[in-house]
Design goal:
- This protein has helices at residues 72-75, 81-89, 107-119, 158-161, 164-173, 185-198, 212-228, 237-242, and strands at 19-26, 32-33, 43-49, 77-80, 95-99, 123-128, 143-147, 176-182, 203-207, 232-233.
- It is of the alpha/beta class.
- It has a domain at 19-179: TIM Barrel, CATH 3.20.20.70.
- Strands 1, 2, 3, 4, 5, 6, 7, 8, 9 and 10 form a ten-stranded mixed β-sheet that branches.
- It is globular.
């Protein structure tokens, strides 16, 4: 089936402008961890927003944007900021990961959410594809950005997935790490080109794969080359621990 472009990237405005299109929230009822990047292994709550501005062939959350395979009426709901803050408040877990899809599509509606989470003493990590620059209101104490620019090998044209101005904004924020999904050593050469061109640091590399066997095999292919470049290396803990079960 041919993948379709996302529909209605920005939700129609509500009267109070405070509702977000959400694919799922998890980590309260069934506790889980951040599975990737600098906070890998930390207990975490996840707010996964719906919609994306890319259509990557290897995306593992196509239920947030690919309406040729999924029904948006079944895969997303509108939830108020107050509802999401109350949900996060019900857990003692400090880290809240806001992911997608591409969460910064809805960033104007994220300002009150971030304020509410900060008031609870939470810290926030955004997982973003790095194509949309963060608004100043999001660049705040207690907020980090896990920026994951997508390579052509991930099944997307880099003319769409690599946006220099946005990457420069994340670098300037001083609150970003840059996490690349890689399958081959050749991918690492491309990562090096991008890191050098756009002054991306620190660099994290994550092996592509949605099964424990695939993640482990790819990690072994990449490990020596990542170590030789003195980059950070992350696994996909949720795949290893929970077999990539949705909501874990």
């Amino acid at each position: 089936m041919t993948a379709s472009a996302p529909i209605s990237l920005e939700p129609a405005a509500d009267e109070d402008g405070s509702r977000l299109i959400v694919a799922e929230c998890f980590g309260v009822e069934v506790p889980t961890f951040q599975g990737e990047g600098p906070s890998c292994g930390h207990p975490a709550l996840f707010i996964r927003l719906s919609r994306c501005n890319l259509t990557c062939a290897k995306c593992d959350t196509k239920y947030t944007w690919d309406w040729s395979q999924f029904d948006p009426r079944k895969e997303s709901t509108k939830r108020s900021v107050a509802n999401l803050v109350a949900w996060a408040e019900s857990s003692p877990v400090e880290l809240v990961v806001i992911t997608g899809g591409e969460p910064l599509i809805q960033q104007a509606r994220l300002f009150p959410l971030i304020r509410g989470l900060m008031a609870l003493g939470k810290r926030v990590e955004f997982e973003t594809n790095g194509t949309i620059a963060p608004a100043p209101e999001l660049v705040a104490d207690g907020v980090r950005f896990n920026v994951s620019p997508k390579l052509a090998s991930f099944g997307v044209k880099e003319t769409k997935s690599i946006v220099p101005a946005a990457l420069e904004a994340f670098v300037a924020s001083g609150r970003a790490t840059f996490k690349f999904v890689a399958s081959t050593v050749a991918d690492l050469d491309r990562v090096a080109d991008l890191a050098d061109t756009h002054r991306l640091a620190p660099v994290w590399v994550m092996p592509e794969g949605t099964t424990p066997e695939a993640v482990t095999a790819t990690a072994r292919v990449l490990a020596d080359a990542v170590a030789a470049r003195h980059w950070h290396f992350t696994t996909r803990l949720h795949v290893l621990a929970f077999a990539d079960a949705r909501g874990r």
